[in-house]
Amino acid sequence: MTRLGAIGVVLALTAFAAALGLWWEAGAWQYGDMPTRGLLRTGGFSLAAVSCHGFAIWLRRRGA
Amino acid sequence: MKRPAYAARLIDVFGFALGFAAFLAVLYYWDPTRALIKRLPPGADDRFEQIPKDMAEIPVADGLSLRSKDAVGEYRRQLSRRIFGMDNIPRDLLPQKVIRDVDKSPGAVKTCLSPTGPDVVHLLSRMDTIIMRGLGCEVRFYKGWRNLAGVDELTGHLMKHWRSYAIGYFRPIKANGHLILYQQGLAATYHDQHRLIERWIADGYTVAAMNMPGYGDNTCYDLERYCDGPIMAKRFATELAVTFLPPVLAVNHALGQRPFRRISMVGISSGAWVTAVSAALDPRIDDSIPVAGVLPLAMLWGKETSARSIVEGINDIAGMLDLAVMAADRPGRRQLQIFNRFDRCCFFGSRPMLYAGLLTQTAGNLGGEVEVVFDETHARHKISRWGLARIMAFITENAVSSAQGPGVKEGG
Predict the structure, then answer these.
(1) Buried b / exposed e across B215-226, counting CB within 10 Å, b at 16+?
(2) B249 by DSSP, 3-state: which?
(3) What span, in angstroms and rounded, lies between the C-alpha atoms of A4 and A9?
(4) Closest of B196, B189, B201, B75 to residue B136, by C-alpha
(5) Which chain B residue has its CA at the smallest distance from A13's CA?
(6) Which of A30, A36, A53 to mutate to probe the B interface, most B CBs <10 Å?
(7) Is B123 on the interface with A (CB under 8 A)?
(8) Gyration radius of chain B over CA positions
(9) Rounded to the nearest 5°, which phi and psi values hold at B369?
(10) At residue B294, what are phi and psi to the nearest 5 degrees?
(11) A5 close to B (CB below 8 A)
C-alpha cells in the first residue's frame, strides 16, 4: 500500500469510528448529536474510500 | 505494466478524496461542529445574533393587548367560543373511543408503512420522515421500554371520512403523578421522538403524544379503525377544533384515570403553536414549553409563514404575545420558550429578544412567568440534548414547588 493509500484508509476508518461513537453515545437516533443520516453518509464515504484503496492494491498486484 | 500502476495511483487519489469527504461529513453532521460552521460565513452574525433592522421597527408592545387578570378570562371565553363553539373548553368531553393496551393487542390496522420499526426506519435515511406512521403499527417496538405499563389509543372522528384524532397515551408502571402532553409538528409524527417519550416513561411521567391534523393517525386513511362511526359533534368539525381539541381531550381522559399533581405540555415547530394556544386556553396546563416555533405573525419570514394558518382564525382575539401571557396568568403557571438560534429550518436568530422582556414583565404582573432561551448547541430543527435538559429542569423545578403546596388535579 502506498503512503497516500495508508493515510486515506486511516482517515476513512477514523472518521467512521468517530461518527459511530458519536451516534451511539447520543442515543443512536436521528435526533441525537450525530444524526443517523450523518452516520450513514460518513459510513458510505468511508466504505467507498477503503474500497478504492483495496482496488488500487489489487490492481498493483495484478500488474506486478 | 505502466497502465495498471497509473490507474492504481488515480484510484488511490480518489480513495483519499473519499476518506477526506468522510472526515468532512463528520464535521458537517455533528451538532457542535455544524453550529460552528453556521457561524463562519460573512453575515452570519447579522443573521443569528442581531435583530434585523426591519423587525426592530415593529411596534412589538402593540401586539400585547392583555394587561390585567380580568382580561384573561374574557380572552379565554372568546377563544373557546371561536374554537369550540362554547363559552368554556369542553372539560367533560372524553375521547370517542379508547383502545386499551394497544401494545398487547394492537387490533386490525390497514397497512403498516414502516414495518421495520423506528430504529431501522431511521437507518433508511429519508424514511424517517414518513408522516403516516400509526400507533397500531409502531407500538410493538415500544414493548421493551423500562417502566411502561401499557399504551392506550384515544381516538375520535371529527370530520366525516376526512379528519380523526388518535392520541398515544403512554402509562408508566411507577407513575410520578405528572402528565406530559407532547405535540409533534409537521412533516413527522411523535413516533420520531420515541427516545424522548421512552425517557419520560422511564422517569415515571405519563405521556399523551399527539400529531398535527393530517399526520400519523390523524386522518381517515385507516377508515375502519378511526372513521367508521358517526362524527363526535358538528361543532368540532372545524379546522380550529380539529387542531386544538385533542390536547383538551387528552387532559380530560388523563384526569378521569387518576389525579395528577402537575400537567406540562411540550411542542416542537408547528406543535409549539398548538402548545401556545392550548396552554392559553386550558388553565389546567401548568407548564408549557414551545420549542423552535411561536413568533408574533408580523415577525414571520420565509417558510415560517406556513405556521400562520394554525392561528390565523384566532389572531384577532389574541396575538402570540397575549397567548404567552395567558399561559402564565397565575403563580405556578409558567412558559419556557426555546428557540434554536442557528436553526437551519426556521425560527432562528434573535428576534424573540425584541419582546422577551415585555412578556416576562407582563406575566410577572399576573404572578406567572415567561422565559425565553436560545439553544446554541446545534443548527437543526429539533429538541436537542441541551433543550431536553432545560425542559426537564423547568418541569422538575415547578413540580417541586407544586408538591410543597396543594394543587392536585382531579377529573370531573
Answers:
(1) bbbbbbbbeebb
(2) helix
(3) 9
(4) B189
(5) B19
(6) A30
(7) yes
(8) 23
(9) -150, 130
(10) 70, 95
(11) yes
pLDDT in tens, chain B (412 residues): 466 688 899 999 999 999 999 999 999 999 999 999 999 998 888 889 888 888 888 888 888 999 888 899 999 999 999 999 999 999 999 999 999 999 999 888 877 766 555 555 555 534 455 777 889 888 888 989 999 999 999 999 999 989 999 999 999 999 999 999 999 999 889 998 999 999 999 999 999 999 999 998 898 888 888 898 899 999 999 999 999 999 999 999 999 999 999 999 999 999 999 999 999 999 999 999 999 999 999 999 999 999 999 999 999 999 999 999 999 999 999 999 999 999 999 999 999 999 999 999 999 999 999 999 999 999 999 999 999 999 999 999 866 665 554 456 666 4
Match 457561524 to its residue by C-alpha cell.
B39
Joined grid coordinates for residue A41: 453518509
Query: What's the first-to-final CA gap in chain B, in angstroms?
Result: 88
Cell output for B345? 429550518
Find the residue in B nearest to A49 (Cα).
B15
pTM score: 0.92
Which residues have C-beta within 8 Å of that of residue B167, sequence separation ≥ 6? B95, B153, B154, B155, B208, B209, B210, B246, B249, B250, B253
Among B329, B18, B321, smallest CA distance to A44 is for B18
Task: Single out the residue of B277, B246, B93 nearest to residue B167, CA to CA.
Answer: B246
